[in-house]
Write a structure and sequence with these properties.
By secondary structure, the protein is an alpha/beta fold. The protein has 2 domains: 180 residues, Rossmann fold; 73 residues, no CATH class. Strand 9 and strand 10 form a beta hairpin. Helix 4 packs antiparallel against helix 5. The protein starts with 6 loop residues before the first strand and ends with a helix. This is Amino acid/amide ABC transporter ATP-binding protein 1, HAAT family.
Length: 263
């Protein structure tokens, strides 16, 4: 098996005038990994996601996916290459049904179409059905997306991402606004994604979720990566504690890892 990183970002930056939203960030992500990204609001986490997934072009730097340079590729091309994502805000076609939303993802997200009509292929229908079943939304397939509660809207974004049959999925705050039981449900779903061979990169402020799932953690601040390492080392880093966690949260996380209890 090749040891080449599935995703490699080299000195990636995104500037808006004098604002350095992402400032020379470099990272490698290996196949099968769950990489967690944390940091305070405004740290550049979502902008970093946007740059990698083609929503926003980088100001400088290079991005490679499976050895291919995707630095200047658009979001559609990157999705077709095997990178899907969800968004912090609940993105969906509000007036379409749950099934129709996922069918759109399956039809147009898996590969480029030379003649992009909207006659669904059999393969797209099957991919959509599998994704709905995976996310536990089959019973709500004919509900209008705009009528869904918060949890189901997050599940719908995950179903849409999985319908593209991705190799890598970027999850932007997948448990924001959820209660403990709902967080556990999403946690189980992410583990199942990993079990299917999907490489995952996620942003989250809920540290119990982030540190429990991640095989490796990055913390960002002012557009830069200030920490990279195993989850049990996050609360021991003085810079992370000072700029992000605070002493109280750091203490709870240390207890979590020392006792195996929930933070």
């Amino acid at each position: 098996m090749s040891t080449q990183a599935l995703l490699a970002c080299h000195e990636v930056s995104r500037h808006y005038g004098s604002l350095k939203a992402v400032d020379g960030a470099s990272l490698d992500v290996s196949s099968g990994e769950v990489l967690g990204i944390g940091g305070p609001n405004g740290a550049g986490k979502t902008t970093f996601f946007d740059v990698i997934t083609g929503v926003t072009p980088p100001t400088s730097g290079r991005i490679e996916f499976d050895g291919r340079d995707i630095t200047e590729a658009g979001a559609d091309e990157i999705c077709h290459a095997g990178i899907a994502r969800t968004f912090q805000l609940n993105a969906a076609f509000e007036h379409l049904t749950v099934l129709e939303n996922v069918q759109v993802a399956a039809q147009f997200g898996r590969h480029a179409r030379r003649f992009p009509g909207f006659r669904l292929s059999r393969a797209s229908r099957q991919a959509a059905e599998r994704a709905l079943d995976f996310a536990g939304l089959s019973s709500k397939a004919h509900m209008t997306a705009g009528a869904l509660p918060v949890l189901d809207r997050k599940l719908l974004m995950i179903a849409g991402a999985m319908a593209t049959e991705p190799r890598m999925v970027f999850l932007d705050e997948p448990v924001g606004g959820l209660n403990a039981e709902e967080i556990d449900l999403i946690q189980g779903l992410v583990r199942r994604m990993q079990g299917q061979g999907v490489t995952i990169v996620l942003i989250e402020h809920v540290m119990r979720f982030l540190l429990t799932l991640s095989t490796r953690v990055l913390i960002m601040h002012h557009g830069q990566i200030i920490f990279e390492g195993p989850p049990d080392r996050v609360a021991e880093d003085a810079t992370v504690v000072e700029t992000y966690l605070g002493q109280g949260a750091a203490g709870r996380l240390k207890k979590h890892f020392s006792e195996g209890a929930d933070a």
